[in-house]
Amino acid sequence: AAFLAERLDRIKPSPTIAVTQKARQLKEAGRDVIGLGAGEPDFDTPDNIKEAAIKAIRSGDTKYTNVDGTDALKKAIIAKFKRENGLDYKMDQITVGTGGKQVLFNALVATLNAGDEVIIPAPYWVSYPDIVLLADGKPVIVECGENAKFKLTAEALEAAITPKTKWLILNSPSNPTGAAYSAADLRALADVLLKHPQVHVLTDDMYEHLLYDGFQFATIAQVEPKLYDRTLTMNGVSKAYCMTGWRIGYAGGPAPLIKAIAKMQSQSTSNPSSISQAAAVEALNGPQDFIEKNNAVFKERRDMVVKLLNQAPGLHCHTPEGAFYVYPSCAGAIGKTTPQGKKIATDDDFVTYLLEAEGVAAVQGSAFGLSPYFRISYATSTEALKEACTRIIRACQALK
Ligand code: PLP
Predict the structure, then answer these.
(1) What are the E-state strand segments in the chain?
(2) pLDDT category, 1, cuts 50, 70, 90?
(3) Which of 60, 148, 266, 391 is deepest in the core (most CB within 10 A)?
């Protein structure tokens, strides 16, 4: 019999991590590669946050903490939810994990029985379907095309709900499209959800602070207080605070679910790093002004990338509201042939061509459940981005 569990056959390694690794390997082999695959800010963690961590080490905050977070961090999270989202949570409604990814994983494993359905709007963050599959659930993928601005509509939601639906996963601003839901968008979805009390909402607000042109962030438990009791509001410090490596994510939700998440965590990883938790307290309670400064840079890069990509024959790039991704269509390149004589049949072929011909590493849309598109992360230096876009334009011009 096979040694590895069948469970593992249901899932694949993260395709975004795979692209990043491939780009790194090519670089190490001496190739001139620009990696646009990674989903992390190129900015360093602010100094006040680093100092808080150093202080934690020096003062002996180096022991086990509460499994699902220190009191100090939970208090900072409660204050954040109140201040920024108008949401009231008590201490037993807050959980802290090793990244938002662990919170999500724990929540799904703690709630899904075999065959329970989870509605996932596509394009989606690559980990949602695979975590659902690991947890014995059934991902129900709902395609949200560009004509719906890559967002789930009330009609599409209604059509996807069944008596077996346990969760709807929302992600705004979105990875991979950068699309964001306004309060009115969420209002329409809430009206559908109110008719279906079996459906819970896992809202992934990881990119909350990365919004441009004055777009107002909204989260569903605030938009519809009647959904508060069945919503897990997930967030973290990775993206806005440039703390991807520190591994701190958190959520607010109903006390019984929060308790179940802690139970899972108590038998797997226990508490997230005590030092990272101390740093996250400073991130949430400390000065927030650097976020706006970073966003000004992100916005400039977004506008540049959108403008340049729209000059590439065969590509079409929308302007996203937030996050640090664009999700251009490569429909116009499909069916063409490369100078090496290879036919471009899919977005996988297209990104392979970009990497081989021009050393630009992007991620194929098929990884996110909507083709033919590809994802570019503009969380990299403006100079590298400009060069990458020049190369992409050249690659598209070379297609026949
Ligand atoms: N959710 C989305 C949409 C993401 O893009 C990411 C990271 O890429 C995460 C969650 C997980 O973030 P972390 O585990 O670093 O908190």
Answers:
(1) 34-35, 94-97, 117-122, 138-143, 165-171, 200-204, 231-236, 249-252, 325-326, 360-361, 363-364, 374-377
(2) confident
(3) 391
- Ligand 1 touching residue 99 (CB < 6 A): yes
Alpha helices in 269-313, H assignment, sequence order: 274-285, 289-309
Atom of ligand 1 nearest to the CA of 247: 15
Mean predicted lDDT score pLDDT of the chain: 96
Pocket test for ligand 1, best of 40, 101, 169, 269 (most atoms within 8 A of CB): 101
Where does the pLDDT of residue 17 fall: very low under 50, low under 70, confident under 90, or very high at 90 and above? confident
Q: 272: cis peptide before it, omega within 30°?
A: no
Closest residue by Cα to atom 12, ligand 1, is: 100
Instruction: Indicate the class that CATH gives domain 63-285.
Output: alpha beta
With a 6 A CB cut-off, is 233 part of the ligand 1 pocket?
A: no
CA of 244 to the centre of ligand 1 (A): 9
Task: Report the CATH architecture of 6-44+290-397.
Answer: Alpha-Beta Complex (3.90)
For the chain, what are the domain ranges?
6-44+290-397, 63-285
ipTM confidence: 0.99
pTM of the complete model beyond 0.90: yes
